[in-house]
Amino acid sequence: FPMFPSLIRQRGSSFVLAIFVIILMSALLLALGRQLISSSKAVSVEVQGSRAFNAAQSGLELGLTQLFRNPGNTCSSVTASFSFNDAGLRDCQATLACSDVPNPDNAGRRLFRLVSVGQCDAGDFTTSRRVVMEAY
Hints:
- The chain has helices at 5-10, 13-67, and strands at 81-84, 92-101, 111-122, 125-135.
- The chain contains two helices and four strands.
- The radius of gyration is 31 Å and the shape is rod-shaped.
- By secondary structure, it is of the alpha+beta class.
- The mean pLDDT is 86.
- A four-stranded antiparallel sheet has the order 1-2-3-4.
């Protein structure tokens, strides 16, 4: 061994380099994993938001159907709450509010304002969307 003294001194450097590479790769994988989880949650919230909007829109359409089913109906003929059991809107409901508002175009013609709030539950979080429509 006295012939190659530099080999003896360099024997531990590859071990230190290997540990450094392992730590660096672990940190990179951890950061990518967190990014994936964050992205997955964002997509889930977006999907739930779309479901809540569709529930609000469906509640609004059901309310319009009830309001204009018969001539002379008033806001009292509109059901205030709907629960949905279909596959796309399961665990969603819509809450509807109806009110008479002044008609700026024609004071003799009634104007109704319908406000529908759709809400969907997805385990640990709830999303809601609000849709407003005026109709005469």
